[in-house]
Design brief:
By secondary structure, the chain is α/β, with parallel strands linked by helices. About 50% of the residues lie in helices and about 15% in strands.
Length: about 325
């Protein structure tokens, strides 16, 4: 119930206006968001690189409403790629297709995504397309396929283990050589589309991780590229120690090299787990969100874990 309410708030304009005008809101949100500028995000990535951890960088923003906003979002990502290349950061980028205009004009979205992929290709870098809620699932996979059909192999996708359809999507996309970020899912979905119980979401996460690792092991076990920018085929996005331990044990069981399995975590969450996995020799990548449109992302982080919500409330109470 609480999770559903917080996800509802993440899309409520009235709630956004209240929270973003609270003096303490940004101070708390900055635990999960690296800053509002490219420079702040790049500095965060440099600090992570110094600890042996790679980054994927995300200029926050989704569900834009005008073509001008979509074009500006595209330009922001192009500028980010320029800065990553200029500063020689071990980082790639993630994008949301609604930020690129998918909900208002698919042709515009395709144009923006191709510009980003072309710039990333110029710099020999990689782009991950994030998965959003189910009204956009088919379109997101379709955009991915259209870009790969144009010769852009430097693009992958995120898959959510709480969706019933994800196993079929994973199996089909693996045959196309797609690289994945596997996550549990952070949107409110109806019970006819997503597992409502956490135990089922966890079980499906492990199942999909096994499928990805098996496929990778059978196809040469592509490793993290030495510059830290192109990830292995399976990248597991989770802070759940049980899921991580399961993946480690299964990878060892099938002799999948450590460099062929990446663990991805969110900025500001479980730094201890990040460093533990890195110390054990696994590639670790931290998702670095930044920008002024941080509210929806922040609210979804609160919805995911009660500890995050208590962190927010306790800071308010200290005021």
């Amino acid at each position: 119930m609480l999770r559903s309410f917080l996800i509802y708030l993440s899309k409520a304009a009235w709630a956004q206006n209240i929270v973003m005008n609270m003096k303490l809101a940004w101070r708390v949100a900055s635990r999960f968001v690296a800053g509002t500028t490219i420079e702040s995000a790049v500095n965060a990535a440099i600090e992570l690189n110094a600890r042996g951890i790679n980054a994927t960088m995300d200029h926050l923003g989704e569900n834009i409403t005008t073509p001008e906003e979509a074009r500006q979002a595209c330009q922001d990502v192009l500028d980010l790629l320029d800065q990553i290349n200029c500063c020689d950061v071990r980082a790639n980028v993630s994008i949301k297709l609604t930020q690129m205009g998918l909900a208002i004009d698919e042709a515009l979205c395709l144009e923006n995504v191709e510009k980003i992929l072309a710039r990333a290709k110029e710099y020999d870098n990689y782009v991950r397309i994030d998965m959003e809620d189910t009204p956009f699932t088919d379109q997101t996979i379709d955009v991915l396929r259209k870009m790969r059909a144009k010769g852009y192999e430097n693009v992958g996708i995120a898959i959510q283990s709480y969706l019933y359809r994800s196993e079929a999507d994973v199996r089909a996309l693996l045959e196309e050589g797609v690289r994945f970020r596997l996550i549990k899912g952070a949107y409110k979905e109806p019970p006819d589309k997503a597992y409502p119980k956490k135990a089922d979401v966890d079980a499906n996460f492990d199942k999909l991780a096994k499928i990805m690792m098996d496929w990778s092991a059978a196809h040469g076990a592509p490793a993290l590229r030495k510059d830290g920018r192109v990830p292995p085929i399976p990248a597991l996005g989770t802070h759940d120690a049980a899921r991580i331990e399961f993946a480690k044990k299964y990878a060892a069981q099938i002799n999948l090299p450590k460099q062929a399995l990446e663990f991805q975590m969110l900025y500001g969450i479980r730094r201890d787990l990040q460093e533990q996995c890195a110390a054990e020799g696994y590639p670790v990548r931290v998702y670095i969100p930044y920008g002024t449109h941080w509210y929806p992302y922040f609210m979804r982080r609160l919805a995911e874990r009660p500890a995050n919500l208590w962190f927010f409330i306790s800071n308010l109470l200290r005021k």
